[in-house]
Amino acid sequence: MDKLQWNSFEKKIYVHSTLTKLYHLWATEEGITSWFLSGAKYVSSDGKQRNSSSFIEKGDSYVWNWHNWDGKAEGKITQTNGKDFIEFSFEESMVSVHLEEMNDVVIVSLKQFNIPEDDDSKLKIHFGCSNGWTFWLTNLKAFVEHGILLNETEINLKNNHLAGWVFVNM
Question: In sequence order, what DSSP letters do the residues of the chain get, joined into one string?
Fold first, then answer.
């Protein structure tokens, strides 16, 4: 990314871990629900639900459930390589996650792109998701390096209609 723009953004974080562990945390139901989601279901292109520890594959569909929000995200896995890269549709856009070993750490690079450029998408997808991914990448680092979760899983914030905009630990 050479300059800031409305149709995409990129977030990066160093995590003291291995490619194998981080890929598992992104590319399996078991992994992604340990630090990010309250529930996830992956269905292969032939209609079979994946085992919770099986890697996602290109063509899979997903349904994600969140902590403190009754909505769900649905999309498709568009690319995987089984070791350091996944790409999926998300919120009328695309997200890619690339893992790169460097010295004793892994750089997690997340890009959200193909974001529509209408005012609603600028607010909800570019601004909202950019803030959200900043938190979730930090949560991933805290979970992997220190065994703690920063997101709220015990206090019900669902009755506060602005909770997703004002609480940093949704």
Answer: --S-BTTEEEEEEEESS-HHHHHHHHHSHHHHHHHT-SEEEEE-TTSPBPPTTSPP-TT-EEEEEETTEEEEEEEEEEEE-SSSEEEEEETTEEEEEEEEEETTEEEEEEEEE----SHHHIIIIIIHHHHHHHHHHHHHHHHHHHS---S-SSS--TT-TTHHHH-TT-
pLDDT one-digit tens code per residue, 16-75: 999 999 999 999 999 999 999 999 999 999 999 999 999 999 999 999 998 887 889 999
Joined together, the tokens standing for residue 55 give 């890697």
The strand order across the sheet containing 105-113 reads 8-15, 105-113, 93-102, 85-90, 69-80, 61-66, 39-43
Q: 0.85 exceeded by the pTM? A: yes
* Domains of the chain with CATH codes: 10-166 (3.30.530.20)
